[in-house]
Amino acid sequence: MTSASTPPTPAGGAAVDELLDPAFLAGVESRPMADVRGLRRRAEQEEVNLSYTRRLLQGRLDIVRRELQRRAEHDGRSLVDLLPEILAEKGRGPAHGLGRHQTVQPAAPERYESWVNGLTRGVDLSDVAGLPDAELEQAARALASAEGSLSERRRGVQQVMDALAGELARRYRNGEADVAALLADEARH
């Protein structure tokens, strides 16, 4: 487990830090259209990467929490028996995403899996049922804390995407941009 004195690198690392820096959007109104579209694509890619990472993290957190609950309730079923129930729980609650259509895939998924696994370094989550309560609770705290931070960063990236989309929409609305040029540019990407 990462020690308390060494917090994990924030989700998305330097690429997301750059997007969240107010300087990223500074002067966007005067930048060329191709630049604004490029900035939006960068933000979209990082949002997809963060969403993927969050799904990985949330799956582990759901399993760890359910195992803790199983133990507290003295539920005799195995964690494997409970997996369909654990997986179905996500479908019963309200959606927390913004329903964005994703047009790109996560870049380097192994990097995000490694980041999530690093959150519980020293705790083998492949044998959740065999872990002592203290290690499970420690893993749950680390995963929950990281999930909160990741979600906050993801919301920030979504706000950047929205600001860039708003700038693009403003240009089209005011006649500063040409839809035919957009379609030609999009065909190249």
From TrEMBL:
Q: Where do the RsiG-like domain residues begin and end? A: 26-87, 124-182
A Pfam family of the record is RsiG
Record-given protein name: RsiG-like domain-containing protein
- Origin organism is Geodermatophilus nigrescens
